[in-house]
Structures are given as C-alpha cells and as structure tokens.
Design a protein that fits this description.
Pfam families: DUF1153 (PF06627). InterPro entries: DUF1153, Trp_repressor/repl_initiator, WH-like_DNA-bd_sf. The structure is a single chain. The protein contains four helices and two strands. With 97 residues, it is mainly α. It has a domain at 32-90: Arc Repressor Mutant, subunit A. A two-stranded antiparallel sheet has the order 1-2. The protein starts with 10 loop residues before the first strand and ends in an 8-residue tail after the last helix.
Length: 97
C-alpha cells in the first residue's frame, strides 16, 4: 500500500472520538458547498489537519467566507451551515455590527 506524502498529520482525533483524515475532506474541485462539506473543512482547520492557508488555496475560499462558517458553527452549531437555515441564523447585511 502506498501512502501519499502530506504536510502535517495524516489524521486528527475530534472531541467526539471520531477520526478525521485527508480522505474525509471534500475534493479540491468542490463547487456545491453543503453543510456536511463545510463542517469537514472547518473541523480540519480547527483541529490541525490542514492549515487555513492550504484550505483557502485548495477550496478557493476567502477569509470572510471561512470565518463566517466558523462563527456560525461556534454560535449555533453545524445546523447553521445549511442553506435552509439562512433566515434563521444569519443577520441581514444592514443589521450586522
């Protein structure tokens, strides 16, 4: 079995006891960002599987977009990343601080 060389750890343990690996991350050509893919990227960065700069480069994310995902998860949990939760968890631009 051949293992590809990767920067950083091959896997990380999450607080719930599950293991997150590079194979679990979405493909680099992902264009449809569903909540499950967003949370994998957020967890990958927060737990050190992939660096923020690598994630932004690999997935074409902006600082604002990624930080938005992180703040939604921190405030409301992974459910807030769903497109159907836009009105429930996100403030309109005019109401932001």
């Amino acid at each position: 079995m051949y293992l590809h060389k990767v920067e950083g750890p091959r896997s990380v343990a999450l607080p719930d006891g599950s293991i997150l690996t590079h194979a679990d991350l979405p493909p680099a050509n992902t264009r449809r960002w569903v909540a499950s893919r967003k949370i994998l990227v957020v967890r990958g960065v927060l737990y050190g599987l992939i660096s923020l700069s690598d994630a932004k480069k690999k997935y074409g994310l902006s600082d604002e977009e990624f930080n938005g995902w992180v703040s939604l998860v921190a405030e409301h949990g992974a459910e807030a990343l769903k497109a159907t939760a836009l009105k429930k968890y996100r403030q309109p631009k005019g109401e932001r601080e």
